[in-house]
Structure formats: structure tokens, C-alpha cells
Amino acid sequence: MIKYFTLTMLFIPLSVSNIYSQVSSIAISGIIKDAAEDKVLPYVNVVLMNAKDSSFVSGSVSNDQGRFTIANISSSNYYLEISFVGYLTLRKEVFVGSLSDYLDLGTIELAENMQVLDEVIITAKQDEINNKLDVRTYSTQDNISQSGGSVLQSLQNLPGVSIDNGKVLLRGNEKVSALIDGKQTALTGFGSQSGLDNLPASAIERIEIINNPSSKFDANGNAGIINIILKKNKKEGFNGKVGLSGGLGALWLKKENLPSIRPQYQYTPKINPSLSLNYRKGKQNLFIQVNNLYTHTLNKNEFITRKYDNGDITKQQLKRNRNTNFFTSKAGVDWNFNEKNTLTVSGLFGSEKIIDRGDQPFFNEDLTSRRRLWQFLEDELKTTVMATASFQHKFSQPGRFLNIGLNYTFHREDEKYFFNNILQDYTGKDAFKLLSDEHVADLNVDYSKPLRYGKLETGLKLRRRNIPTNMQFFPGLNSPLDTNAGGWATYSEIIPAVYGNYLFENKKFEAEVGVRLEYVDLQYDVNPDHNTYKSDGYNYIQPFPNIRLGYKLNDQNKLSVSFNRRVDRPNEVDIRIFPKYDDAEIIKVGNPALRPQFTTALELGYKRNWRNGYLYSALYHRTGKGTITRILSSVSDDNLIYAIFQNAGKSLNSGIEIIMGQDMTKMYSMNLNINVYYNQINAFSVKNLYPVPNTFSAVQQKVYSGNIKLNNQFHFTKKLDAQISLVYLAPDIIPQGKIGSRFSLDVGIKKSVQNGKGEFFINGTDLLNTMRIKKEIIAENFNYKSADYYETQVIRIGYLYKF
Question: CB-hemisphere CA count at 13 Å for 776?
Fold first, then answer.
């Protein structure tokens, strides 16, 4: 079936969107010399004119070294007129493009006699979308229906993005790497996407979605990259922004509790104050940003029916009321020593306090007998401190620069977990404590040089990461805790990498070819008293190439094909040896024997833009080897289920993504995103070691799935805007089972006041309260069906003032 599906998609017409990231301001430069004597010519007049009507666009004069620069050029066809006393005026056609922020015309020679020089044509056209057809940039202030929430909530309405149980999926794949300002940090996880649900959107300037990253980026994250750009103002003088938003969630119950447990959270408060200040004068630029996101949330409300082959049936509910306070602050200074050298020093502090109060009752099939009640309190504090220093040297040639960056991150995870294990005969009071300290040091060196027909990029990176972790168990009466699985463990990782990337462009063709060579040495040391796992690790040296070829049919149409290879390395949490008891009878455990998942991706795109709209589509296929996933199995008479990470084997993901946008009238515009894909997980067999050695086997799974998103934008006046967003996610497969369809409706209104300095907004997410996650899991000796009625409906109101 996959062969027929792939063959069919090859004949589907494709197009592309103007919502993608684009280079909107480009600088062109060159050196002017005497053709006969090969000497530079200073003070030569250079004028840029529009090729259509010969109107003046901009001008410049060459400096003492013969170098001229014309900045802030937009997409169009131009010609240069270069004139100097005693020399023949020279006219050159110039086509400005988007492969680089800078276009180097190289050496331009002026002749003293009447000889007509051969015409030199520089070809590069700026497209309305990103030149790679895979980088999309979205401003958080344009996402009215999600203003005042978290970054995760802002992502769920973006084209090509879906959210499943707190995880971001790109084109149906959760292996996504989240970056902040182009760097991996502890706030979002190194190579993962943790923390997005608590990072306030008010701290964010824009979000970039990168489906096929180049070799400049770390190789981790086979589904792609989410790059979160923090706000930073560089206006002259003193200026800033201050904002406050608040809201209420869980306005009504989606489903009543099972008997005899504490109430679910309702009318949950959300408060988000934010402050951004900037002072720029002369060579210094000082900036500070402070955000606080305080929320109460019905974080989980899952109802499960478990059926075992021995005939036993268990009905349960897992309800988690969560209080969160996430404080982030960032401050720094830019020193512009001169036009060529800039130093930036900044620091970031983040504190995330999470309190979970939960209940988990277990009943028989008809709810007449409660077998167990698990009541817990989880107290977790995450602290992040990050220090960054970056230096940039600009060479005389515009666009040629050298960047050197040093970054150190400390991240502490301090978790305390207390629970009452209430059974018919007794009540046990148990607890455990986890302390994890993460130390990460990064060195980055990046060099970029514009060429006559493109750009050359190269660099290196060195990472040293160390995470000592300690788990202590405090058992109570008849404790269910596996106290022999505690103790200490240390995760150590060294990753040096080098990359090179070459971009070429002429009038019809584009090419980007790069490779990243990465060496990884990972060691996971386990205390010798652990009852199951031993020390383990791995190392490899692997190339990660990227190739993109483009052909320009005309100014509105371009064909592109790309290939890249990426990896998903197991994170420390994935291999953590300690059992986690946030669910009384589904125990999550890591696996030190876990190995990286390697993925190759191929994508074909074709784009077309027109005056008031666009159509974008991409045909893609990914093949993964050593697919990382959790395996659920039951190996004892107590019916406990163990969820353990394993390498499941080969997986396939193929599909087509279409994005269409149209300005229907001056008042109304729309954006439609359709993503249809085929997922397949091949049959596999793995050996689990915890709690006792056992073998698990699964048959092949496959499904056609997809999602549809419709964003409607209304511009009633220059000061009043509104947005209505609809999201539908079709049923899909997950390892060992499937997930049901989901639907939500979001609405937002934004009003500009105080001559544009102030802004009010009000919005509602999942206004109809329809979003819920339904799953079905089938294992060797049991199956279960679940429905999670967690909080999705939130009404917010907020105000932002700029000064």
C-alpha cells in the first residue's frame, strides 16, 4: 500500500506560501578597480535604479579601499550605474535574492577608454517565502486567539504543527528539537521540547518552524526544529513594554469524577505580568526582560478501563490539579566597540515551581468496589541559570563575519513526591526525592562569507554535559516502592561537531549543500547496588548531510527538492534508571541501553504566489531506524504495567502538506492548512530488563491520518482585529495502539488604543470544550482504553503598553 501511496503523491501538484520566513532587507556590495592597472578606485558614484522604470532606489560612494555598500534593498530587478571622472560609465543588471542577507558583486572594473565591457549579470531573486521552502516564521502578536498563554498553546494553531498530550508534533512526528534564539537550553530541554507549556508567550518575539534544517543546526531532532526568538528591543534611547493578562479555565466539567475523590479544579486562574526595558545610547545597548506565568490547571483527568487476559477488569481515574509559577528574567548588554566588533553578554534566570495534588481511584468493572485509592502530592522546583557571551567581528566585506559564542547552563530539578496508598486493609504513607543537577558548557564558532553567487558558511561546536542524579526512597507500610532501584547515576556527554554549508544561486538554479560531522561519546554510570541496570553508554562519529536543489520557473513559481539525515539521541530522562510513580499502576522507567534513532528525509516542493494569496504544498517521506518509543508490558500477577523506552525498529512517515492563504477582502483573510500522511511502524521484538527480564513483540501498525486547520483573520478597522481558528486532528496510530480524533475552536479579539501605544485583547481557547484525547492500547496480555478530559477551555483578557 505504501508503494501505491507514494506513487500517487508524486503526481500531486504542489505550490507554496508567502507566510514563510523571508529576507526582507538585503545589502549589496563590491570593490571598484581600474581595469588596466588593477588599483582600487575611491569615491566612485554608485547608483541603484529600478529596472522597470529607471527610477532611483538608492546610492553610495566607494570608500578608500574602493568598497561600496548599498543596504536595505528589497526584492526586485535592478541595474547599477557606476560613474567616475575619466572613466566610462558602466551599467550592470542586478537581480537581488534571498539566499543571503548580503550579495557580494566581487570586483567591478572601470575602463578609461571607450571599450564596452561585457555585461555582468548578478542573479538572485527574493521569494515571498523562505528560500529553502521549509522555514516558517510566525509572530506571537498575530496569534490573537492564543495571546496571554504559554508557548505550547501558541504553537497549536500554527500550520503544520499539532499538539498531543503536551508534546509538539511536526507532520505527525514528535521528535522535535526546541531552541531558544537558535540555541539548545535547559528551559526547553537539550535536544527535546520540555518546558514549552510553562514558558510564557509574552516573552516571545516570534517562532520559527524548520522542517528540514541545514548543517548549521545541531543534528538532533529528526522531525524538525522549533526556534523560539525572545524579545529584544534595539531602539535608540529608553523604551519598553509592560503587559498584564489574566484568565479563567475549566469553566465547566467535561466528565464527573469517579466516587469518593477530591473535586477537580474549576474556574482556574491564569495571571501573566510581563516587563521589557531597553536603553540604547552610543555604543552600548542595555536590555532586561521579566515575565511571570502563574496558573492553576486541571493538568490531567484521564479515565481508563483495563482488561486482562485472565478476565480481570479495572476502571480507574487519574486526576491531577496543578499549580504552576514560572518566573523568567533575562538581562544583558551589547557593546559596539566599533563598526566591526560587537560583544554581547547576557544572563538568564528561570524558576519553575510546580505543585500537583492528585487522586487515582481503582474500581472493579461496575464501580461497586474500590480496590485502591492513590492520593499524592508532588512538589517540584526547577531552577535554571544561564550565562552567555558572544563576540562578532565584521570584516570589510559586508556580510562576512566571524561569531564566537560561549554558553554555560546550570539546571536543577528538585522533586519531592508524597502519596497515601489507601487499600481496604491498610493505608501506607510513602515518599521519594529526586535531585538532578545539569551542567552544560558550549563553545560555538561560526564563519560566513558572501560570494558572487551565494554564500559559504562553516563552523564548529563543542559541548560538555554532565548530569549527576540521585533518587531516595522513603517507604511506608507495605510499600509498593522498589527501594532497590534507587541510588545515584551520572550522565556524561561530549559532542564535538564541525559543519560546512555552501549556497549557490543564478538566474534559474539554486543549490544548498552541506554536511555536519558529529562525534558523540555518552557514558551513563549507575551505582553498583541497582537491582536491574548496569553502567552503559555508546559513541559514534557520523556525517549528517543536507542537500537542497531549486529551479526557478519564473518569478511566481519555483520547484525544490531536499534531502537530509538527522538523529534523535536519547535524553537523560529517557535512560534514567529510577522508576517513576506518578501513576500507581503504570510505572515509567528509563533504559541505559537505549541507542540513537537515525532518520533520513526527502522532500519535494513547488510554490506559486500571486498578488492576494498563495498556495503551498510539500511532498515528504521520512524513514527512521531504531525508533525510540515507550513499550508497555505486564509481567507479574499484580497487574502492574511497566512503560520502558526501547528502540522499536524501523518506522515510515510519508505525506503531503498544503497551506493556502487568501486575502478575500480588505476586511477578511484566511489561511487553510491540510496535512495528510501515512504512518507505519514495522513489527519488532525487544527485551525488557525491568522489573524482570521479559520479551515483548508487536505486529506491524499502519494508518492514514492527518489534520486540518483554518485560521480566519478579520481586520474591522486599523485598530480592531479578530481571529477565529478551527483545528481538527484525525485518528492516528501510536506504538501499541491508536489515538482518536480531536477538534477545537479558538476565538480572539484585539483592540489598539492610545494612538497605538496600548493594546487590549480577549480570547477563548477550545471555546466549545470539545478537545479530549482518547487512546486504545493493545499489549500481549492486556489492553486498555483511555479518555483524558484535561483542561483545554480558557478565557483570557489582557493589556499591553509600549513606551
Answer: 6
Q: CB-hemisphere CA count at 13 Å for 792?
A: 23
Element containing residue 9 per DSSP (H, E): helix 2-9
DSSP 8-state class, residue 159: T
Where helices occur in 140-224 by DSSP H, the ranges are: 151-155
DSSP, res 731: -
- Give me the chain's average pLDDT, please: 85
Residues 395-447 have pLDDT tens digits of 988 788 999 999 999 999 999 999 999 998 899 999 999 999 999 999 999 99
Rounded Cα–Cα distance for residues 20 and 522 (Å): 37
H or E stretch at 6? helix 2-9
Interacting residues of 197 by C-beta distance below 8 A, sequence separation 6+ = 150, 151, 152, 153, 166
C-alpha angle 698-699-704 in degrees, rounded to nearest 5: 120
∠ Cα 667 672 677 (to 5°): 175
Q: What number of other Cβ atoms are within 10 A of residue 612's Cβ?
A: 11
pLDDT-based confidence at residue 205 (cuts at 50, 70, 90): confident
CA 635, CA 656: separation in Å to the nearest integer?
Answer: 41
Q: DSSP of 672-727, one letter per residue?
A: EEEEEEEEEE--EEEEE-SSS-EEEEE--EEEEEEEEEEEEEEEEETTEEEEEEEE
Task: Label residue 347 by pLDDT band (50, 70, 90).
Answer: very high
This model's pTM is above 0.85: no
* 530 DSSP β-pair partners: none
Contacts of 282 (CB under 8 A, 6+ apart): none
Closest listed residue to residue 798, CA positions, set 272, 404, 118: 272
**DSSP-derived secondary structure for 568-637:** EPPPHHHH--S-B-SSSSEEEE--TT---EEEEEEEEEEEEEETTEEEEEEEEEEEEES-EEEEEE--ST
**Paired strand residues for 661:** 614, 671
- Cell representation of residue 603: 522532500
Instruction: Say if residue 535's pLDDT is above 60.
Output: yes
Cell 561569531 sits at which residue?
A: 403
Query: What domains, with CATH codes, occur in the chain?
Result: 26-122 (2.60.40.10), 237-802 (2.40.170.20)
**DSSP result, 477-499:** TT----GGG-EEEEEEEEEEEEE
Q: pLDDT tens digits for 135-169? A: 777 776 667 766 666 777 777 777 777 776 667 77
**122 against 548, higher pLDDT:** 548
Is there a contact between 681 and 663 (Cβ–Cβ < 8 Å)?
no
**Per-residue buried b or exposed e for 46-82, using 16+ beta carbons within 10 Å of the residue's own CB:** bbbbeeeeeeebeebebeeebbbbbeebebeebbbbb
Parallel/antiparallel/unpaired status of strands 586-589 and 641-647? parallel
E strand spans, 395-482: 401-423, 427-451, 454-474
What tens digit of pLDDT does each residue of 216-250 get? 888 888 778 888 887 666 566 788 889 999 999 99
CA gap 691, 640 in Å, rounded: 10
3-state secondary structure of 226: strand
C-alpha cell at 583: 501513576
Half-sphere exposure of 727 (CA within 13 A, CB side): 26
